[in-house]
């Protein structure tokens, strides 16, 4: 028993299928360009903020290690720096 369900689909040749594309108006094209520019600017700013955060974090880490190092030297009695005027860079570590 043969059941007929409708016509058989045609085989498409290579390059024959062309989907309908909506033509964008000038306003839509302009909006798309503006959105791309905004996205690029936002991504660039995020990358800059990330770089600055990494630089600042590394600087804080280095200063923290230096401060700990200076304090350990002071407590060990090896530091002969006894004055504490505000212009002296090592005075910060003596406090």
What do these coordinates show?
This protein has 95 residues and is mainly α. It is 57% helix and 0% strand. The protein has 2 helices and no strands. The chain has helices spanning 26-75, 91-94. The radius of gyration is 35 Å and the shape is elongated. The model has no long low-confidence stretch (mean pLDDT 79).
The N- and C-terminal alpha carbons lie at a distance of 101 Å
How much of the polypeptide forms β-strand, as a percent range?
under 5%
Q: Compute the number of strand runs.
A: 0
Count of helical stretches: 2
Helical content stands at 55-70%
Brief rundown of the structure:
The chain has 95 residues and is mostly helical. It is built from two helices and no strands. The N and C termini lie far apart (101 Å).
Give a topology summary.
Layout: H1 26-75, H2 91-94
What characteristics describe this protein?
mainly alpha, 95 residues
